[in-house]
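Quick one: structure for this chain?
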Amino acid sequence: MEKVIKQLVDLQSIDNQLDKLRAKRGDLPERLKKLESQSTLILTNITDDKARIREINKDLKHLSAEIEDVKVQLEKYKNQLYLVTTNKEYDALQHEMDAIKETINTNENTIIESEDEKIELEEAVKRNSISSENIIRDLTKSKSDLENAMINTIDEEQRLEPLREKLAASVDKGLLFTYERFRKARRGRGIVRIHRDSCGSCFNQLPPQTAIEVKKMESLISCPNCGMLLYSEE
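Got it. Here's what it folds into:
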């Protein structure tokens, strides 16, 4: 059992070193992913807004041309009013003129709405362009920071990881599962040293018999209070 306990202690030592190396990178990897996601979303919005602006410009051109065309037709009908000889002809021309006026009114309202939408889209493009520049600047800095952190840690991490894998493979699967479960729940600690007969995790004083059994290293002992695996350096 002493060998098993030593394996877990050695595994904890390697994990502590790896945790420290990864801590130097901090949240940079996650920050990069978030920035890249934000950048993609903003660039997509800019592309979509610009496409919509082009579509609006095309519609505005079409609406303006249609207004000019029907205005010409309206003038023709106005001139024809002086030539009609019956009320029926007059009413027919008046009906056509009213329809043209309605078309002009509808198109002009649509132009106003489209112009307002265009202004909003252009402002959105400006805001997103500024945001995109800021994000790209942050991305560049974060990538540089991560590269520097990787340079300072990657060699040692690559040296430790095979050692960790080899050691973990030699540990009983049940114990390894318990160790890993504690590491996830207890800030990276799967087994802790007792200090002055107290648990190194919850810091509660151990019952005298429990402390003695831990020091004997004849069996793997858990803290009766928090359940953490214990060992002694004595």
